[in-house]
Amino acid sequence: MKSTGKKRVALALPLGLPFIERILGGVLVFARQERNWSFTQIPEHLAPSFDWLKQWDGDGALVMITSKNDARFASKLPIPVVNLAAYLENSFIPTVMVDHREIGRMAARHLLEQRFRRFGYYGVRGLLYSSQRRDGFLETIKHADGICSTLEVFSEESTSNKWRRQQKELDSWLKQMRPPVGIMACTDLRAGFISNACRRLGLRIPEDVALIGVDNDPVSCEFHEPPLSSVSRNDHSVGLRAAELLDDLMTGHRPPLKPILVLPDGVVRRRSTETMAIDDQEVDTVVRYMREHISEKFGMERIIEVSGLSRRMLEYRFKSSIGTSPYVLLNQLRVERAKQLLAEKRKRTLSEISKTCGFSELRRFRLVFRRITGKSPAKL
Q1: Fold of domain 281-379
Q2: Which of 56, 72, 105, 295 stands 20 to 30 A from 335 (CA)?
């Protein structure tokens, strides 16, 4: 017999996945605010399972529906459930998930900002989140008159032969592209596959292939060289919103007719997209020099020396290739680096950041930063 005390909530979720841990962080925030939830999990169970929920005498559950069988089973449970997975087009189960199309749009906008005109999307067939990320990516690229190639593979490739076939398929796809190209992978794990393939093929990241994934998983992103840029999913907010919905359902509210979508956090920039697609070789050499020496204090004199061109010709070539002057771009790159440092967990003083980004003095850093971003670095 059920008690009239705390609401008992089952967590039928896989363990050990970084995005699940972030989702559970949001769930926990809600539960602590309400102070009337208690949780149940099956111990030592890595994969999501619904079997035990059939006999469980609780009030509600958070689940991940990854198949039609899961959906059918969940629909027959005597308790309300909220789905956190985006595998099926229609699970007919109340669902909270990140806006996957917006994830694709964010990745596309990021690569377009780097002036790429040729693109690729690497995804998984038959999975809702991958197809929605692809659609958001493609629609944004198409709107900007870009060209995009897609490669989508099956997720179930268990045997070594099938895995080698996927590797060959990925290698062949990459060989067909003309650098420089900006590629989005549907997850950080798949972005890692591309990183390894580029190494096999002698393609440079980010000069030949600018690469961005999804999930912002520190292990997947930081364990590659260069580290991978990624779209952060905003999983904490997904967990918070899912807990709110489950609480509503447990108190008798009607379920929503459509999935509840949560906007992603944004792009976490790392070195795999720290580039700019430039066809002019001299301009590309200068821009690469700027990036590699961004912590040094230098101005137009050294830039002209590196280019081997006259100042007038260098200005003309920059304007023709990337639409701005070398001096303006240098300040933009310095400010972009400063924004990355300000976003890191490790806290630095503004003086440290100013020096690390090659500004001659703190006052100059503040002035340029405000001119480019419209904000003070102290307010970011």
Answers
A1: Arc Repressor Mutant, subunit A (1.10.10)
A2: 105
